[in-house]
Amino acid sequence: MTGVSAGLLRIDGLDVTYRTRTGPVRAVRGVDLTVHPGQIVAVVGESGSGKSTTAHAAIGLLPAGGRVEAGSITFDGRDLTGLSEKGWRSVRGTGIALVPQDPTVSLDPVRRVGEQVAEVLRIHRLAPRARLAAEAVELLRRAGVDRPGQRARQYPHQLSGGLRQRVLIAIALAGEPRLIIADEPTSALDVTVQRAILDHLQELAAESGTAVLLITHDLGVAADRAAHVAVMSGGTVVEQGPTREVLGAPAHAYTRDLLAAAPALAGEPLRPRRPAGTDVLLAVTGLRRSFDGTAAVDDVSFTLTRGRTLALVGESGSGKTTTARMAVGLETPDAGTVTFDGEDITAARGERLRALRRRFQLVHQNPYASLNPRMTLGDIVAEPLRAFGVGDRASRRERAAELLEQVALPVSALRRRPVELSGGQRQRVAIARALALNPDLVVLDEPVSALDVSVQAQILRLLVRLQQEHGLTYLFITHDLAVVRQVADEVGVMRRGRLVESGPTDAVLTDPSAEHTRELLAAIPGTRVTAS
Amino acid sequence: MPDLSVRDTGLHLLRRPGLVLSGVVIALVLLAAVAPALFTGQDPIAGVPAERLRGPSPSHLFGTDETGRDVFARVVHGAALSLRATVIAVLVALVSGAALGLLAGFRGGWLDSVVMRVIDVVQAVPAILLSLALVTALGFGTTNVAIAVGVSNLAAFARLMRAEVLRVRSGAFVEAARASGVRWSGVLGRHVLPNALGPVLVLATLTFGTAVLEVSALSFLGFGATPPTPEWGALVAGGRGFLATAWWMTTFPGLTVAAVVLATNRLGRALDGERSGR
């Protein structure tokens, strides 16, 4: 059964069920998938689509409670379904390797990274004991780690997210596997880092003839990297085929929705740009802030006129969030001034700052952490009203219901608690809370980056609608230039604490003057497809 | 687990006979504290000289002491005083410890350093030694014993509370509340405290056992209630002189204390497990 036509990995009619307290949940239903030697196959889907479950079933690492109910998984002509733990050990590492999702938790924090790479070699007896350390350094070098000899002696916490992901790739490469399963290998990383890592993975695969099963939520990544793509939704593969055909002429409605939602591929502004007015709502000049001697924000100045959206864009550590936090008085600048509606608020403290908070509100990045788990949604949304003594209990409740309606949540949700909601619904609650006091300025700190693309699109549309209805001014913090194109009138690009470029969105994105802006633009996944 | 059905709860308990037994022990002790007359009709204070130093028998379950008092009646009637002391001790430790921890964790800065260094010093002194010193300063009596035991146990509460507050305080929802204009008192009362209190309450149930033991130890040493008022620790002490001839006088009150300590520990562990979802 080993022939090229049979495929390296063949999944036939796979059914996976999780046993939960509320009964069995069918996570994957009747999935067929084939990966040929040396091919890159992408499985695309949103959270809960079953893409990760499919990948984990293929390497026999289903989480507790998960079970393959039906179907078969064949690797290199060998049936893997019902394999013993010992049998799996002979496949994992040398046959199929996994690059896990989260580089922050997938490495052992108390062991040097070199040892962790060498462990694979030791377990599979791939190198003599005396050569282990040298081989590990060589693997790190192949995975694209700079100064591998030095890095091998470091601990995971001493490495950046990108480097940790490269270490995980080195570990996956150690056994010279014929198939690498990469489960969202770059979704936690900056776009430029993501691009470098995916480029490298692709090169390695081409060089050694290793096949890659790439699990991703990002249609753009799939479009750039894979020859073959399978789109998953609700546990089934709704569409699959050569990437060009699936994304060029999607046959299934879900694929079309996903394509329409992906900002990089659509890229149309959600509303017409607004001209710069003269009514300056927020102005910061010469803002500086350093932590432990390193400058997080270095001489940043911008102005934001009423009713517009200014996006601050940059990678992690660029200082964009710190800038936003200083703008709303959650962080004190070392130097510079913040002027809100003509009033210098840089030194505002205590009750004066609290009074100002009525007029500017903040929406956090992570809706899973920004809502108090013990409070009901009604109490959460009404909290700012209560804090400022607006209305009585009954009128606050009424207003909370009205706010939930505005963010398209049912009034019945008032009594529910955050844990009962999805990420998108939670972010709607956070937005409702920010609107409770009818503020002038809303600072949005990566409001959609923790959400699935289709949910992202909904939230962005909601934000644009609310802005029009209430005449809001947005300071929008994001790492995603595609999102900037959709919502911002003006953009500031930040790098290492400095504002390297700023101006009207269309001008900056079509004709960037700073090198870093060009890098960011080139790294947006999916641009290769739209260009072709 | 709120969604457990009655049947599931039954099964859950059936597989844990120790837990059921612990519950029964605590229930009986509580009942004895409230209504001792349900358990015995005999007088705990006045003895019958003719029946002094009798061994355990159906009429005197735990035997009698040197003045002919029924030991069982004295244990039952001592429950109220010993339990009251324990509850006061745990409350003192919980309230003052949690308040200090909350203050230190929430305010931070120099206040945190000062409070926590004082707590370090308190914790460096063995609890029993500290409570001995305190009760000597406060004067004798059951309530003073309880306060002394409470103060000597507050360090653990302060530390745990501070750690929980630090964890919760850095949460995004606390910052979100602050950013939307909630006063610090509101942040503390509605966001930090409710989310930090759980583990501290579990510690309180676990401390119960220790407190029973320490209160009894101090009353054994004679710092507690004045004789002839029955108190568990004092009962153990009273029988000490007759250990060779009347073993029951120390053994049964001692076993009672041991049973209560073990039972509260078992219940505390069960609550701890429920909280962490095991």
UniProtKB/TrEMBL annotation, chain A:
Keywords: ATP-binding, Cell membrane, Membrane, Nucleotide-binding, Transport. Coiled coil: none annotated. It is a peripheral membrane protein. Signal peptide: none annotated. GO terms for cellular component: plasma membrane. GO terms for biological process: peptide transport. It is found in: Cell membrane. The keyword Nucleotide-binding applies. GO terms for molecular function: ATP binding; ATP hydrolysis activity. The keyword Cell membrane applies. It comes from the Bacteria. Pfam families: ABC_tran, oligo_HPY. Residues 11-259, 282-521 form the ABC transporter domain. NCBIfam families: PRK10419.1, PRK11308.1. Belongs to the ABC transporter superfamily. This is Dipeptide transport ATP-binding protein DppD. It comes from Actinokineospora spheciospongiae.
From TrEMBL, chain B:
It comes from the Bacteria. The chain crosses the membrane at residues 20-39, 85-106, 200-225, 245-268. The keyword Amino-acid biosynthesis does not apply. It is found in: Cell membrane. Pfam families: BPD_transp_1 (PF00528). Residues 79-268 form the ABC transmembrane type-1 domain. It is a multi-pass membrane protein. GO terms for cellular component: plasma membrane. Keywords: Cell membrane, Membrane, Transmembrane, Transmembrane helix, Transport. GO terms for biological process: transmembrane transport. InterPro entries: BP-dependent_transpt_permease (IPR050366), MetI-like (IPR000515), MetI-like_sf (IPR035906). CDD domains: TM_PBP2. Belongs to the binding-protein-dependent transport system permease family. This is Dipeptide transport system permease protein DppC.
